[in-house]
Amino acid sequence: MSQDRPSALLVGTDAYAIRACLRNGLTPYVVHGPHLNDWGYLRLPEGAVGIFAEDPTSIESILFGLRRTGALDREFRFLQTSDEEALVAAAALARILDLPTAVDVETAPNFRDKGLQKQIVAAAGLDVGASRVIEDIHHLDPATVPDFDRAVLKPVAGAGTRNTSVVRGRDGLLATCAEYRRRGVPQRTFVLEEFTPGEEWMADGVVFDGELRFLSVGTYVEPCLTAVDANRVLQLERFDPTEDAAAFALARPVVEEALRALGLRRGVFHMELFHQPETGRLLFGECAARTGGGLISESVEYKFGVDLGEAAIRCAEGVDPEVRPAVRPESVSTLFLANRPGVLVGYPAPDLIRALPGVEHVRLDLPFGFRSGDAVEDTTQGVGQIMLSGGSREEVRDRREFVTRWFDERLVVVPAHATYPELRRWQQANWPDTASTFRTWEAAPVATDV
Q1: Angle, to 10 degrees, between the axis of helix 59-69 and the axis of helix 87-97?
Q2: Residue 445 counted as domain residue
Q3: In sequence order, what DSSP letters do the residues of 65-96 get, joined into one string?
Q4: Which of 104, 82, 99, 108 is nearest to 7 (CA)?
Q5: Count of domains in the chain?
Q6: 238 HSE (CA, 13 A, CB side)
Q7: What is the CATH number of the domain that holds 387?
Q8: SS3 for 144-197, per residue?
Q9: pLDDT in tens, 267-278
Q10: Which strands form 342-346's sheet, in the order they lie side by side?
Q11: Is the pLDDT of residue 328 over 60?
Q12: From the CA atom positions of the chain, what is the Rg in Å?
């Protein structure tokens, strides 16, 4: 690799940002943690340089890796991260190394501390549910918490819905805190949010020079916490700017004002909103200064022709992303493929899934032999992910239901907690030719004289 080729420093293994760097003639130096080796799923492409850091959310660990590999001697064009948990460290590192980046160290905490974020958005006059920060759930004084009906308890700097629970009343809160302590949940500082009913919307887009350059709005088929509480995985639909013009008109001013209040002047974002159709209210939920997960990048690129990874690296460098959407008329939806408790031993090949009507993208994340727990613990759990298209939203929903059922019928999982007799019956039902029983007492063939 030529040492003269321009390079960029990426914290985290965002495949879309890595791809964008390579397409633009940049060598991405990718700071990654143990997960890249431990999981063995994502591999860095040719042309990318990996830099191992024991903890890619720690400035110390990142600097160790950069110094160890000699990468600190490189002249990087910019620093970029899409890693939710590394956002503050990356912003501070950019300040230390004097590199351009999209989110500066003054702004980054606004997108990580959910308690702080809600305070800022509420102070700007936006509609947002009440919340309070619990500094240490291991030492919560019950007398300091007024009783309530329902609320959401989540880590103040968490991601997805990991270690997030709906709690009912003060007794439910205390019981959940005790359960988290018993399980050894590493986070101690949580935010307790007023439970907000309604449809959960998502807003994804690009802001540059403080101006909203691109906006995509969509909805979860059911809210994230509802899906997790019901032990179901996520399904998402992307709105159409013409057919769903009212949704875009409602969301745009809320998104613009929230980003302005939080101080994001350039970069990509993923925002959660709550829509209450009976009143027309649109409440702010939370916002991340990164691209969303769950094939959001694929669905945005399919529907709008906008590469969020490309926009992310250009914003990090301080270059106008020049977003020019080209909207397709088709409806688009993404979904996670549900697993079942037990040991995964079989599922359809990707080519068979791609051959189904409307399937545009397939990603199967779990290998055979993966052991799944009894419950969905966060919104990203599933065997894999699929993106579907169709001529109308109704057609996409029909296809989504069909694919979900079709895949589940072909999913082979050794059931969890089964006894030996139950496992034998399961084997006989699924692979009858392989099952064997104890037959010694049956009469042996009688020898005959010749």
Answers
A1: 50
A2: no
A3: HHHHHTGGGS-EEEEEE--GGGHHHHHHHHHH
A4: 99
A5: 3
A6: 31
A7: 3.30.470.20
A8: HCCCCCEEEEEECCCCCCCCCEEEEHHHHHHHHHHHHHHHCCCCCCEEEEECCC
A9: 999 999 999 999
A10: 371-372, 342-346, 412-415
A11: yes
A12: 25
| Tokens read off for 281 | 């209210």
The token pair that represents 117 in the structure block: 């974020």
Give the containing element (helix H, strand E) for 201: strand 199-208
| Euclidean distance between CA atoms 394 and 189, whole angstroms | 43
Residue spans of beta strands (DSSP E) within 289-383: 331-337, 342-346, 359-364, 371-372
Asked if residue 210 and residue 162 are part of one domain, the reply reads no
Domain with 50, as residue range(s), is 7-101
Asked if residue 236 lies in contact with residue 219, where contact means CB atoms within 8 angstroms, the answer is: yes
Choice among 33-42, 268-277, 357-366, 433-442 with the minimum mean pLDDT: 433-442
**Is 9 in a helix, a strand, or coil?**
strand
For residue 335, what are the CA distances in angstroms to 107, 197, 219?
32, 22, 12
CATH of the domain at 61: 3.40.50.20
Q: State pTM to two decimals.
A: 0.91
Q: Starting at the edge strand that comes first in sequence, how are the strands of the sheet with 199-208 ordered?
A: 281-288, 267-276, 199-208, 211-220, 235-238, 331-337, 384-390, 359-364
What angle do the packed helices 308-317 and 296-304 form, to 10 degrees? Answer: 100
